[in-house]
User: What shape does this take?
Amino acid sequence: MEDITVFSHLDCIAKDNGENHPERKERLEVILDSIKGISQLNISFKDSPLADFKTINLVHPQSYIDDLLSMIPIYGLVGVEKEPYADTILCPQSKEAILRACGAGIESANELMSGLTKRLFCAVRPPGHHAETSRANGFCFINNAAVTARYLQSKFNINKIAIIDFDVHHGNGTQEIFYNNKSVFYGSIHQHPLFPGTGIETETGVGNIFNAPISSDTTREKFMEIFETKILKNVDLFEPEIILISAGFDAHKRDPLAGMKLESEDYYTLTQNIVEIAKRHSDGRIISFLEGGYDLQALSECIEAHLEALSN
Ligand SMILES: [Zn+2]
Assistant: This one.
């Protein structure tokens, strides 16, 4: 059984998106409670540091970060996107939350490369996979997984990294950031049509982007089959040195934002399949990032299934 390190921070709970917003603090509270209740695994909790701008700038230009930070209100809430996507919101606590969420990935990379742990989970909010190079989108401001990938490449000379995204929404941000970068594989299975509308199969980048758009009436069995044939087979061929997971749990049948039908146990299988590829090509090295997932009961169950498989 592999040890797991979980990076998180109370600052990530403090971020407030206002009443009735699906991306709420209770998500992370439930996830951390669930993880603390897992007694059969060796899990260490560590506080995320604040990400430094130099590392963030490997993906996002400082002008974009400065604009974003300048919009953070002293009180109340500010939407950073225009209608109909005005629900990407900054609050007075946003700076710390955003920098801790990204810092979790950076410190995970440091810990991974020190050889201390091979399996790491970033229990953070805000999520990251919708954040593009210079555009906040879909509750995301900084692309936590993308910054971590670039950091691994620049600091540790890792060449090939795969980012596997099973959030029910397409990670338009991650795709945009690596669209012309052969050294990063991005594979996403997602409901389509659905926000953000991108992620059709013909969006292939430089042969490094693999999209598996699926309709809401796709069965669990079919979901698993498509994930295997359209995503995992291609990761296997890519032979990544490290695997990052954009772990969203909103393809669960209970999720209010999408229409997929996965059960909690399916997240065990999805994760286990990724672990097998990591063992084959990546010396077992995986950093997983919390993305979406908006039903609290589903989150609690899915996170346990995800970490259990991650420890294999
Ligand atoms: Zn999502």
